[in-house]
Each structure stands twice: as structure tokens, then as C-alpha cells.
Amino acid sequence: MKKVQKKYEIEVGDTTSAIADKLGLSVAELVYYHNLHSGVVDEYIYGDILPQKLKYILLPISYEQEIPIPPKVEYSSANVTKATGKTMKKYGITERYFQHEKMINELDFEIDIMEEIHDDLYVATFNKHSVRINNSDSFRLAEQLYYKIDQCIYPLKLSSNHDGSFKSVVNSKEIKERWIRQRPELEEYYQGETGAEILSKAEEALCNAELYGNRLLNSIFFKLWHTPVYRSYAYGKTVEYEDHYLIFPQHTGIKFKVSLNSDLKINENNKFIIRLTGSCIDSRSENELWNAPSNALVNRNPEHTVKGDIRMVFKIDETDKRIFSVAGFIELQGKNHHKRIEIGIYEL
């Protein structure tokens, strides 16, 4: 087997979304891979309009067979379950946040994940690093503080249920001890009202494992990572359930009715697909979500509820049944507001 770097030559009139459609890729996957491997800042892709200097888009590496093999259609088992044993993988993550069509923030980081699966033991250890905000590793003061708090959290060890959903924080004692050691230095350096508020919330979360475990699922990465995709999809079964996704930090999660559907056909790269789709069924109004504080009492007008969608594609490795990638978006739209989060998670 040999690795082959693919390139797409840009044609007149091409846009990011048009190229993604041509190649059968999601926009998030196309943008993430190109920006990760392009060494020229002026050739990074940020929106649908491509940079003038850009001549080629770098595409995900493919594997070409030295000896041609006739295509053979194979399907994964309808009972999707993680293989037992230990795996160690590295992932790159890009999260992009939009108000209307304007991107207001972009977060990039890498995370090492070691998973151990034995009998009823489902434990993963996460180590986060290489954090960049808006393509910079120079952080503002509040961002520096969050970064320092992050260093107390990792390595983070989490257990999950058989279906992949979150169960508990395993190493809460170690996290608390790291926080207690680090806190005096942070309190001395990061003073002022904002710093005190951030440190107070960190204290509450890191010293309370149950509370912290629930707050982890407010992170779009950890929320998607613990999507319950490991289950039976026999006879083309669609799995439906209700779930909450944090879109507004000042409010509890937004309620969605979602479905899981499988495409168990194994592709040439030994992957198969599970799709997560859904619609917002939250009863809160546009004004309540965008403008009101979390403790405000607001008269709800059923005509002013928001519309929302979630669309995610999970690619699963056939060999060990671990997540290879997740790409998609979640968005909410009212009469006057539009908020969208795009995410790409890819094994490196």
C-alpha cells in the first residue's frame, strides 16, 4: 500500500461548497483537511469564497493498491459494538461558530485518546493539546485562564455505557488534586471580577465529579463523542430519541428529537457510516434564547419558537469499530437570529 496526496485544481467559479458537493465530502471535512496540511496562511479556506492565491485544494489522503483487486461489496455487522482491547489514536478537531453567515470564532485542537474495552469496562483517557483560537496560539487574558484550567483537567479519564453514551468521570480525585495545586497561582495572577467568576465556576465543577461530568457534555466535542451510536441496526432499523445540545452558554441545552440511521456498506477505506439527524423541539422562544438571562421569566409565544437542525456523519472503522471521523453542523434559526456550529473530528 502507498499513500497518495490528492489535489483538486480550482476552476473558475468554484466555491468551497460546490467543490465539496463534487467530491462527495462535507464542507467541514474539506476545509479541516486543507487548512491542517497547508503551510501558507494566505491559502487557508475560511468561507465559501476561495482565496485568490489558491490554485489547489489538498484532499484527504487515499490509499492506492499496488495490485488491483476486483471490487467486492461487504457489509458490517448490524450489531455495532466496539472491539475489545486497547487502542491509541490521535484526532484533530475544528469547531466553527457562526452568527448568520459570519464566522465569529474558530477553535482548533488535537486530542490523544486511549480506549480500553474489556467485558463491562469501557474507559477512555483524553489528552488535549495544540489549542488554537482563530488560527492563533496567542490567547487573550480570559482565554489564557481557561487554557490553564484545561491543564488541570487533562489527562481526563471517562467511562461510557455499552452504547457509547457518557457514564462517569473516573479520575475525578486526580483532577481535584491538580486543581488544588494550581489554584493559588491562578488566583494570584488572574485577578479582577472576570477572573474571580471563572475561577469560582472552575472550583465548583472540578471539585464535584457528578457536576463536572454533566458539564463535560456541554462541550460539542464530548457531546458528539458520546453519541449512543453503538447498538443494533438490524433490518435497517432507525433509532429515535430526544437529547439536549448546549448552543447558548447562559441556558440549559436545546431540546432536539434525533434519529440514528446506518449505512453498513464498507467502503474502500474500510469504513462504514452512521448518520445523526434531528430537529429542534424546544419550547423556548427566540427572544428567550438570544436575549434573556437564564433566570428570567419570559412569556412564551408559540408563534415565536425557533427552528433548528442537526446533521452529523459518523465514519466508523470496520476493524476496531472506533470512531474515525465526525463531520456536520447544528443550527438554530429564528425570525431575526441565526446561529450555527460546524464541527469536524478526524483521526490523524
From TrEMBL:
Species of provenance: Chryseobacterium contaminans
Superkingdom of the source species: Bacteria
Protein name per its UniProtKB record: LysM domain-containing protein
